[in-house]
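Late entry, written up from scratch paper. The run itself happened at the end of the previous shift, but nothing got recorded in the book at the time, so transcribing now.
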Amino acid sequence: MTTATLKPAYTAADWRDFVALTKPRVMTLVVFTGLCGLLIAPGHIHPVLAFTAILCIAIGAGAAAALNQWVEADSDKLMKRTASRPLPAGRMDKQSALHFGVGLSFFSVLTLGLATNWFAAAVLAVSILFYVFVYTIWLKPRTAQNIVIGGAAGAFPPVIGWAAVTGDISALPIALFCLIFFWTPPHFWALALYIRPDYASAGIPMLPVVAGERETRRQIWGYTAIMAMAAFAPVLLKLTGIVYGTVALLATGVFVYMAFRVFRSQQLDPAQMRAERSLFKYSILYLFIMFGAVVVDRWVMA
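Output as recorded:
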């Protein structure tokens, strides 16, 4: 046996590869919605503990992302969008990613429990376990509706932020959870439409691959309608005031218009799917706008 055959198929990972495992761009939205949940919660929390809570939410999200990439290392090799990640690119071995993800999970949950309360820590633990086991391992490789149920994992941060202050859950964080939950399908399927070839080559049963573009556009439109109702639920339940209501009307109106463009589009070439790309990009901005509006509304109405 030669020396070459004994060499591992991966190179030594550096700190940038471990950061990449946490999906920092995705984490930005997670941290923001978690922060908003904390800021609108009644009661008081020491600034140091508040920072610790948000840091734990970020670390928990990073842990889930790392474990997601550990599970999907083989399928990531088959997709252009993910082939450069540390595991499929050969810059890190799977065991390191597993240890990193598990370590971050325990650290984030235990630290949040000690710094704030164990109810918030339990919700964080549930969100990590849900993303890894329910979405990544169970739903994603088996059903085209994976993102519908699995979207719950990304809806937990405002609930965790609220619970870190109050130690419980009430109507407003539940309403915000529902907003993210119903926002996820049109957000993610808009992306899935123009990267459908990637999912097809990896054998992942995303909706555009299994049901086709036309059905995906129809479901984007349908879930956008449900999302719009969820967006106005805080106003109808008198949990927010005129500031949030006005912003929700304008921002959701733009979202509905862009989703309708996707619904009406008959473009089959992913490279030419401008309406789909626009909806995906705006959907990220939309969530920042909506959650920022909740915070401003609560401060104005206080």
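DSSP finds 15 helices and no strands in the chain.
(Scratch paper discarded after transcription.)
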